[in-house]
Amino acid sequence: MSSVEKSDWIQFLHRLGLEVYRLSTPESGRLSAFLSVPFIDYAGVIIASGILAAKYRSLALPSVDPYDWMVHHGKPVSFPFELRDGGTELKRKVGTIVGVEDGIRGPCLSVRYLDNLEKKSNGKEFTRFVKPRWLPAVQELEELPDLEAWQHGSRLASNIRALDVVLGEEGAAVLVGKPHQDCLIVDVKNRVTEELKDSVELNRLGFDGAGGPLVLADMIRPDGWGPQAMRETFSSHIAPEPEPGWEHAIICGSLNFLRYWDECDSAVRIAILCPSENAYDEAVGFANEIYYQRIDDVSIPEELLALKPSTVDLQLIACSR
Amino acid sequence: MNRRIELEHAYNAMEKAASSGWIVSEIGWQCLDNFHESLRAFENRLKLQQIDESWHSFLRYCRSFRFFLVVTPLPALEIIRNMRGWPGFDSLPLNQLKEHLDETARRLYASLLDSFAALQQEHDNPLCKKAVADLSSTELEGKRIAVLSPDGRLSVAIQKYLSKCLNHCRIDCLRPAELKSIDIYEELIVFGPSRRRFSDGSEFIFATPRASSLRLYTPACFPASIPTPYRFEGSPHRSSGDSGFPAMRSFAAPSVTKDDHQRPITEPQVSTCDQAWLDSLPPLVVPEGVFSDNESGGEWDSEPVAAKQVLLGADHAVFLDAESSLYRLTRERKSGKDKWICSGVEHTDVRDVGPGDVLLFQAAGGGSMVGEIADQLLGKDAMNYRDAQNLWKSKLRLFVVMSSSTLEVLELMRQKGSNIRTAATVRNWCASWNIGPGSWRDFERLLEILGLQEHRERIFQATNSIRAAHRKAGFQLATRLLEMMQGQSLSDLMCNGMQEFYGADGMSNCKIAYEVIAIIPEECEVLPNHLNQPFPLH
Asked: Tens place of pLDDT for every residue, chain A, 321 residues?
């Protein structure tokens, strides 16, 4: 196989996110990564997907007893809703708890909801068991919203199958179940949100291709963007400048790096630079200055280096500033 | 097309380019050489006569003509035609100006006009001719070719001219900034030496070129030097390791072919693989040190010293300490050919330097390579020594972080009697490239501040050994470079009055040779750190 075929920039960037997450430990100091890529586009979101994949793959789903919900009998809730016709979309719907019934795999929470599926009966009420994996994501509502307005549901993920492959079923359920403050992307919001609409084949991320393409927005889930259900279960934030409280920060662009690196208080910081930027030289000089003040070197895994495209440069260090 | 699909295409194209690198053709061009040398000689004469100011417009025209001849595919006549209407290039009062020329200058002026006329006789630009020949032999039917244009005013002319020569391709004549886009071309063609791209901010075309295939055509008298694209210090991507994957460096390792259809050029082959040389270096033996010295602080003495002023080629000058010595390059004419080569390097006193001598100055050190060689020289002890160095450096860095400033260390050092002047010194000590304080007394004070007195002997011995190893490594690199210079062509020096000599592959050290034009009789006073540092005159 030629080297040209071997290199895959998407797999490299995703893997970089995975490794950065893996290498950042409380003992390692503040992990900093500097990356020079030929194009700044997509780099931030794909690295973020790697970070999130590394985090959620290792998370176990909290155990929830469906009988605990019985005290809320008749109360309104919102719950994840998988289509049964082989579709890949995951929605959030609202309904009322009607009870717990014994299913094949144990007791299941039963919810009554309104649906608009024409092939069944338009606007009729249905009852659905909530799968055990979605129980932690069931949310109690203060009052029952307008069911007519909610009969279409609100999209939680475009392709939950792909999320299951990348994060594992439990990790995917945790990700879409509630909001998380995982990853801050300092970049141009319009461009990044356009990128999030795109999808990536799973084999480009190093997984078996079954499961269809991974929609980047399903994974990155920026707050304040997308359908209401996604906005309420965000994992990331896209901002023009750093904000406190985010574990991982990806600073895209030489100017952003020069302006905001020192202001960023995230434990893990990744700077993405591009040689065609006007401030690139200055940014590289700044990165090298930080390199000389590092407290430790971080050895880059060989597997990651083997994936690195020739046009990409990478530096990983532990530093104090 | 979806932007990501375009990106896929772009990354793939660049991977192809990275695996093949730049294809550089250095082309012998006798008429241009003659014009270049005549112009240089005439300029020098005007400077000596101190009338170069009044000839400024004429010289500017000649330099621009030479520039466009080298950086475009256009033949001389086409360039002259295009420059005719440009402001500042018309109605030069040459007859009046000529009256002030002395006999030598008149002769040089006549020679310059002759060479100018000879260039106009050429119907083709040899650089373009070679490019067309190369491209015609490849499958480029309907493909997009990007040609860099140095000046928007010539873009149309270049596009028109090349479209005639390569009528089966689509030619886009672009300014460097236009190559920042995601557009990817089948071929990217650059005319002229690469060096000028370093300063105009378009170096990125060498680091992330937007084409699958990269070609650079330059006259042999202006050799190409493709910049190394990666820039992160300590980046682990200098080599591909065991992955079998091409390292980024392949962009910077061009395959150079020398076209000798006009003048034979036989450069001595310099080995680019110096691993064998590195491996053969003997281990270093460092004697036990006596760690006492004067109070120096390792900082530059700010007292001015007397210096000689020396005018160098390429419009440079340098201050030299009259009582010191430096390297002088010796040259010889290659037998039977009008070509100078470097025959060796000798040490000489500054007071013996005269016009016509070629002096050698340090342009860049060995960089991180010095550390690597030093560790090799230290052998199995390197790890222990580096551990000792890391012990005090990490403690110092922690101290600086905890106190949020290097000023506190500076203050404590001063309280203990140190003469260090600025916090920058403390910052330097924190940096990995710095071996340690220049004065043992300061070092001792620092260790006291850090509470590391009981490790004094170990740390001092380690510092002494590392410093000796670095010195030896630097010396080895310099020696190696001087060896490699032997037999190298001095065509650049003869044409431009200066020439750079680089270390072999993987070594960043560089020396630069300048021809001495004149020595100013009056001495002047300069700061010591300004000595031996050539600087441009304007």
From this structure: 333 345 689 999 999 999 999 998 877 778 999 999 999 999 999 999 999 999 999 888 787 787 888 778 888 888 998 877 677 889 998 888 888 887 777 788 888 887 765 445 555 778 888 888 888 888 888 877 777 777 778 899 999 999 999 999 999 999 999 999 999 999 999 999 999 999 999 988 888 767 789 999 999 999 999 899 999 999 999 999 999 999 999 999 999 999 999 999 999 999 999 988 988 888 988 998 888 888 888 888 888 888 888 888 899 999 875
Residues B41 and B84 in one domain: yes
What is the span of the domain harbouring residue B87? 30-121
Q: Do A294 and B11 touch (CB under 8 A)?
A: no
Domain end (from A100, A132, A157) = A157
Q: Confirm if B105 and B39 have CB atoms less than 8 A apart.
A: no
What DSSP state is assigned to residue B240? -
Q: Are residues B405 and B317 in the same domain?
A: no
> Could you report the predicted ipTM of this complex, rounded to two decimals?
0.82
Residue that is last in its domain, among B103, B121, B139: B121
**C-beta of residue A175 within 8 angstroms of C-beta of residue A221:** yes
Integer CA distances (angstroms), A284 to A27, A188, A254, A308, A313, in order:
27, 21, 8, 19, 11
| Cβ atoms of residues A24 and A268 within 8 Å | yes
Q: Is B209 exposed, middle or buried (0-12, 13-18, 19+ CB in 10 A)?
A: buried
The span from the CA of A39 to the CA of B230, in Å, is: 15
CB B298, CB B434: distance < 8 Å: no
Chain A interface residues (partner B, CB cutoff 8 A): 2-4, 6-7, 9, 34, 36, 38-39, 41-42, 194-195, 198, 274-276, 278, 280-281, 284, 287-288, 291-297, 300, 302, 305-306, 308-315, 320-321
Number of domains in chain B: 4
* Interacting residues of B74 by C-beta distance below 8 A, sequence separation 6+: B68, B82, B125, B128, B154, B157, B158, B161
Domain shared by A253 and A278, yes or no: yes
In B, minimum Cα distance to A2 occurs at B245
User: Judging by DSSP bridges, how do beta strands A199-200 and A125-130 pair with one another?
Assistant: unpaired
Domain boundary among B234, B249, B265: B265
Q: Do the Cβ atoms of A38 and B229 come within 8 Å?
A: no
DSSP β-bridge partners for residue B515: B358
> 3-state class of B95 per DSSP?
helix
Nearest to B232 among A2, A284, A306 (CB): A284
